[in-house]
Amino acid sequence: MYNDKKILAVIPARGGSKGLPDKNIKKLYNKPLIVWSIEQAKESKYIDRVIVSTDSNEIAKIAVDHGAEVPFIRPSELAKDNTPTIDVLVHLINHLENNGSKYDILLLLEPTSPLRKRGDIDNAMKAFIDNYKNADSVISLGEVHLENPHAIKTIEN
């Protein structure tokens, strides 16, 4: 909790991946990929709860073994290649609210973006709560270095 705001971290991790099968549990420096996001969320001073939303029993076991909660196995209709993340989040929030849990802030941590610096999560939460009174969201971005210029998006000022 920060400034009386209850913060929920959600890590969506599908079991099926056509491009790189089982990508969320493949090892990155001797840890399953999803574990990096779980550990970063658990290190936060402000996050009240860390939940993994998954359709995979194997991902669920790894998540729970590393300190995250998996309150249910996600239905298969919310685990397709083209399922929007927002649908997964709404499903989870509805489940939590139906069971008496409400949060002020939802923090989405994609397991496929594990390269966060120590403090990034807490700094983002503080900035969002303290400085962006009229904002309803915040997103982190990084400088483009060697990425394929045809695969990136630009933001015009």
Structure notes:
The longest helix is centred in the middle third of the chain and has 14 residues, at 85-98. The relative contact order is 0.19. The N and C termini lie far apart (34 Å). A hairpin with a 2-residue loop joins strand 2 and strand 3. It is built from four helices and five strands. The protein has a three-stranded parallel sheet with strand order 4-1-5, with helices on both faces. It is an alpha/beta fold and 157 residues long.
Features:
single chain; 157 residues; alpha/beta; three-stranded parallel beta sheet; two-stranded antiparallel sheet; 4 helices; globular
Q: What would you say about this model in short?
A:
The protein has 157 residues and is an alpha/beta fold.
